[in-house]
Amino acid sequence: MKPLRNLLSMAILLSVLVPAAAVASTSYSGGKLHGTAVQISCTTGSETGTPPTTDPETTSQGLALYGMSGFTVYAEAASAFTAGGFLAAYLWLAPSSKWVRAPDLDLYVDSALAEQGWAGFQVVSSTGGIVYLPSGVGVAVDIHIIATKAR
What we know:
Blueprint: H1 2-17, E1 26-34, E2 37-44, E3 63-64, E4 68-77, E5 86-93, E6 98-101, E7 107-108, E8 115-122, E9 129-135, E10 141-149
Antiparallel strand pairs: 1-2, 2-10, 3-9, 4-8, 4-10, 5-6, 5-7, 5-9
């Protein structure tokens, strides 16, 4: 019985001394109408965001591009980004009902900044959706996508 007691004591000690692994979490909020713009925010409490799972037209996961003519992306963090980090782009593929990576639309962060913006994106085909998630930015980050409605 003594070896089992020693084993249990060691397990309890390890559970106190070894911190639990950080759990990545991403929360989405959005659909806020600001005049002619729609704002979708992705706030992550970890370095790497979790991709959305549902249609942006029916939820606040990502920005639905239906009826939009363009968008701007902003990223805000409490401290400077890590060199080499980027915002990974995902597009909603409506015919397949899934999000797919779009590396051609990735945005690279400047390691000297804690806030950064990218403007002038044109929506050529106003269908589907877009979302950006942090990858290797080194800090928790809020990502805002502000879209302009088509006239």
